[in-house]
Design brief:
The complex is a heterodimer of chains A (569) and B (155). Chain A is α/β, with parallel strands linked by helices. In chain A, 30% of the residues lie in helices and 25% in strands. Chain A has 16 helices and 30 strands. In chain A, helix 9 packs parallel to helix 10. With 155 residues, chain B is α/β, with parallel strands linked by helices. Chain B has 4 helices and 4 strands, in the order E-H-E-H-E-H-E-H. The chains are: A alpha/beta (569), B alpha/beta (155). Chains A and B meet through helix 4, helix 5, helix 14 and helix 15 of A and helix 1, strand 2, helix 2 and helix 3 of B.
C-alpha cells in the first residue's frame, strides 16, 4: 500500500531525555497517509538498519520520513542506503537530534512539539514534492586546453596519453609559456628548456594533440560533455566540439614602474629580466642586491605571489656559484619558503654565502646612483642599524599578476574572476574546478605557482576532465559536486510562462534562455547547465519556474505545518 | 510555553521563528549548535534550502501568515556562495521585501537576514538569541490567527 512510513531513531537514548518519542509516535501515526511508524534503538546498528529496510519493504510505503540525526551525521548515509531500495522511495530526513533533542534539553514539552512539527512538515512536503526528470547527453570525447604553458602542456599530454583528442590553443607562436623566459627552474635547478622539451616533443609527435598556435578562443557555448568552441586565428576560424575545457592561461608579469628607480637607472632589473639575461649567459655582476616584495603585499596588491622568494634564492645561489667572489644580498620582508624541499633550498642559500637582510615595509630600501646603480641603503630591522650596500645590479622581485586575457575569457566561459583578476576556483571543496561544470583550471590561471606545481595541477585538471570524457553519456543529475548527485533542476511550465526574462537575468549559470514557442517567447532551462540554486524560482512572477524537489506548494505545506503542534495545545 | 498574563492581557509566549537555512552554511551552523549543546528556545523551526536564492518572497510572507513571529533567511557569506553569488541576489530581494514588511506594518525587524554569520555553532546560537531578544518585546504577530487559516481550503 503506498503511503508514508515514519522511522524514528532513539540514537541509543540520546533523543529520549528531551523528546517524548512515544507521544510523537502516537501523533504521527494518526496523520493522513502514514501507514506505519517505527521506533528504533539506533539506525546505525546493523540489525536496525536491516530491520527498517524490511519494514519499508513489508509496508510497501513509497515515501519514507527518517527522524534521526542531522544530514551531516550518520543519517545522510542511511538515507542514501534507503534511496537505493527497489521502489526508489522518496525520502525526507528530519533532524531531531542536533536540532531538537540536543538544542532543547531543558524544554521537553517544547522539544516534543518541535519533533512532531518537523515530522508533519516532512509529511506536508510529501504531498507536493516531486522529482526532477533526468536528462542525458552523449559526451564528445575531446578536450580543449587553453594555454600551452607548463600547466597546459602537462594537461594536454595527460589527456592525450589517456587516449582522447586534445585541442591545445596557444595565443603565442609556440608552447612553453613562462618557461621560455627563464633559465632554470627551482628547486631542481634543471634548465627550463630541458624541462620543457619532452612535453613539446610529445605535442609534436602525438597525433591526438592538435596544436593551434596564434589562436584565441572567440566564443563558447554548451555544457559539460558538449561544448561548442569557436577558435579564431589570423588565418581564419575553426569550430571544435569538446566534452571538457581546461583553462591554463597562466599569469602575467608586472613592471615596477616608478619603484626603486626602475627604468631610470641602468641595471635595475626585474627578476624576469634577470632570468632572460641568464638564458643569454649574461646577468653576472660582482655585487647584486635583490629586493623582495616589490609591489606585492601592499594595500594595492596584498597577496604573496609565492614564487618570487624561491626564484630570487635560485638566482642568488647561481650568481654565487658562477663567481665565488660575487656579493649577493637579498633584502626581504619575510622569506616564504614552505615545505621541506624549499626550506632545504633556503638553507643551501645561507651556506652558499647569500646575505639576507630584513627590511621594514614602512621604511623601504633606497636605490641610488648616477646613470648606473651604485648603492642601496636599507634599514636592517633585525639589527636595528642602517646599512649601505654597494651594488652593480639591483633585481626587483615583482609578483605575477593575472593574465591579460582573463577578463575576456571569463566573459566567454562565464567563470567569475577574483578581485585580482585570476579565475575563481570552487574553493575549497572542489580544487581545480570552476562554477561551470566541465571547465577546469590549472596553473597560474588560478593563482601564481611555480612551474613544477603548474605541472601537478595540469595533470590534476586532466584527471578531472577525463572523469567526464571517460563516460559515454553524461546525465544532468550526476553533475552535482556531492556524492549524492545534484539536488535537481529547475523546470518551466510552458503554459504559464509569460516570457518576462527575470529568470534569464538572474541565472548565475546562464541555464535559462528565452525561446520562441509559437507566437510567444518562453523560458527554457538547460538541465545540463542548471545547478539547482533556485534563483529562477524565486524571481518568477507567477511561479512558472519551479524546482520539483523544492516547489512552492511543498514549501508552503511545510510552512503551514511549522507551528501546528503549538496551535493544538 | 504559554504564560497566562493577568486578566484582560493577551497571553504572552516565546516568539515563533521560522528559519530558512542554506545547507552549505547556516544549516551546518544549526547542526553544530546542536552538537555543541547550546540551549536554544524550542520554538524555532528550520527549513533547509539548497541556496538562499531559492527562498521566495512569498514563502516569507506565507510564514508570517501561518503564525511565525519572525522569519530568518540564513545564507552563506556574500562572496562565498556556492552558486555564483546567487545569495547576493537573495539579499537584495529580501531587503526589498523588508521595505514591504515595513509598509504593511509587520516591520522589517521581524525578518532576520544573516549571510555568513551563522556558520559556526556558537555563531548560529548567537544570531538566533539576538533575534529572539529583538522579537520578545514585540507583540505576538500571530495573536489574531483564527480558524480561517486552518480551514481545509487554505491548507
Amino acid at each position: 500500500m503506498p503511503g508514508v512510513i515514519a522511522i524514528l531513531c532513539r540514537c541509543c537514548g540520546q533523543i529520549d531525555p528531551a523528546v517524548d518519542l512515544a507521544a510523537v509516535r502516537e501523533k504521527i501515526a494518526r496523520e493522513d497517509g502514514v501507514v506505519s511508524v517505527e521506533v528504533r534503538e539506533s539506525l546505525c546498528l546493523p540489525e536496525d538498519g536491516a530491520a527498517i529496510e524490511k519494514a519499508v519493504r513489508d509496508s510497501g510505503a513509497d515515501r519514507i520520513v527518517v527522524a534521526a540525526c542531522s544530514p551531516y551525521g550518520k543519517a545522510g548515509e542511511i538515507v542514501s542506503t534507503l534511496s537505493r531500495l527497489a521502489n526508489r522511495p522518496q525520502i525526507r530526513l528530519v533532524d531531531i537530534r542536533e536540532g531538537c533533542a540536543w538544542s532543547h534539553r531543558e524544554d521537553r514539552e517544547g522539544a516534543t512539539a518541535k519533533a512532531c512539527d518537523l515530522l508533519r512538515m516532512a509529511l506536508g512536503f510529501f504531498r507536493y514534492g516531486a522529482r526532477s526528470a533526468d536528462a542525458a547527453v552523449p559526451v564528445h570525447p575531446a578536450c580543449l586546453v587553453v594555454g600551452a604553458g607548463s600547466a597546459g602542456l602537462a594537461a594536454a599530454v595527460s589527456v592525450a596519453r589517456a587516449g582522447y583528442p586534445v585541442h591545445l590553443v596557444e595565443r603565442g607562436a609556440a608552447g612553453g609559456g613562462m618557461l621560455r623566459m627563464i633559465s632554470r627552474v627551482y628547486p631542481s635547478d634543471a634548465a627550463a628548456d630541458e624541462k620543457l622539451r619532452p612535453y613539446l616533443e610529445e605535442v609534436e609527435r602525438n597525433p591526438r594533440i592538435s596544436f593551434h598556435p596564434r589562436t584565441r578562443v572567440a566564443a563558447a557555448t554548451g555544457f559539460a560533455g558538449d561544448f561548442k568552441i569557436r577558435l579564431a586565428s589570423e588565418v581564419g576560424g575553426e569550430n571544435v566540439r569538446v566534452g571538457a575545457v581546461i583553462l591554463a592561461t597562466g599569469a602575467g608579469a608586472w613592471l615596477p614602474r616608478g619603484l626603486y628607480r626602475y627604468g631610470e637607472l641602468r641595471n635595475v632589473l626585474t627578476l624576469m629580466e634577470l632570468e632572460r639575461r641568464g638564458r643569454e649567459g649574461k646577468g653576472a655582476a660582482k655585487r647584486t642586491v635583490f629586493i623582495q616584495c616589490v609591489g606585492a603585499r601592499c594595500p594595492e596588491l596584498p597577496y604573496c605571489a609565492a614564487m618570487c622568494c624561491p626564484s630570487s634564492i635560485k638566482n642568488a645561489v647561481a650568481l654565487r656559484k658562477s663567481d665565488p667572489d660575487a656579493e649577493v644580498t637579498i633584502l626581504h620582508r619575510d622569506i616564504m619558503m614552505p615545505g621541506h624541499i624549499l626550506e632545504r633550498y633556503y638553507r643551501n642559500a645561507l651556506n652558499a654565502g647569500v646575505r639576507f637582510v630584513r627590511y621594514d615595509a614602512e621604511k623601504p630600501p633606497v636605490v641610488s646612483g648616477g646613470a648606473q646603480v651604485e648603492r642601496v641603503e636599507v634599514f636592517d630591522v633585525i639589527n636595528g642599524i642602517s646599512r649601505t650596500i654597494a651594488a652593480d645590479q639591483v633585481v626587483l622581485s615583482t609578483p605575477l599578476v593575472a593574465g591579460s586575457d582573463n577578463a575576456r575569457l571569463s566573459e566567454i566561459f562565464r567563470i567569475p574572476l577574483d578581485r585580482y583578476g585570476f579565475f575563481r576556483e570552487d574553493y575549497p571543496l572542489h580544487p581545480l574546478e570552476t562554477r561551470m561544470g566541465g571547465i577546469f583550471l590549472c596553473g597560474s590561471a588560478r593563482w601564481p605557482v611555480s612551474s613544477g606545481e603548474a605541472v601537478t595541477q595540469g595533470e590534476g585538471a586532466a584527471a578531472k576532465a577525463l572523469a567526464i570524457l571517460g563516460r559515454e553519456r553524461i546525465s544532468a543529475l550526476s553533475m552535482g559536486r556531492m556524492p549524492e548527485g545534484k539536488f535537481g533542476h529547475a523546470r518551466v511550465e510552458n503554459r504559464f510562462c509569460t516570457g518576462c526574462g527575470n529568470c534569464v537575468a538572474v541565472c548565475p549559470y546562464e541555464a535559462c534562455a528565452l525561446q520562441r514557442m509559437g507566437p510567444a517567447r518562453v523560458s527554457r532551462v538547460n538541465k545540463m547547465r542548471c545547478r539547482a540554486c533556485g534563483s529562477c524560482t524565486a524571481v518568477c512572477p507567477n511561479g512558472t519556474v519551479q524546482m520539483p524537489e523544492h516547489n512552492a506548494r511543498a514549501v508552503g505545506a511545510m510552512i503551514r505545518r511549522a507551528f501546528a503542534e503549538e496551535d493544538f495545545r | 510555553m504559554n504564560v497566562q498574563g493577568s486578566a484582560g492581557e493577551p497571553a504572552r509566549r516565546t516568539p515563533r521563528v521560522l528559519l530558512f537555512a542554506c545547507r552549505w552554511c547556516a544549516l551546518i551552523g544549526a547542526d553544530a549548535a546542536g552538537r555543541g549543546r547550546f540551549p536554544l528556545p524550542a520554538s524555532f523551526r528550520v527549513i533547509p534550502v539548497e541556496c538562499a536564492a531559492m527562498i521566495e518572497s512569498d514563502s516569507v510572507l506565507r510564514a508570517f501568515a501561518s503564525g511565525a513571529d519572525g522569519v530568518g533567511v540564513l545564507g552563506c557569506h556574500l562572496g562565498g556562495c556556492r552558486f555564483n553569488d546567487a545569495n547576493g541576489v537573495a539579499l537584495k530581494r529580501m531587503e526589498t521585501l523588508g521595505d514591504l514588511l515595513e509598509a504593511v506594518g509587520i516591520g522589517r525587524r521581524r525578518l532576520l537576514l544573516s549571510f555568513g554569520t551563522g556558520h559556526e555553532g556558537h555563531q548560529f546560537a548567537g544570531v538566533l538569541r539576538t533575534f529572539y531578544a529583538e522579537l520578545e518585546p514585540l507583540p505576538p504577530l500571530s495573536a489574531w490567527r483564527g480558524p480561517l487559516l486552518n480551514t481545509p481550503t487554505f491548507r
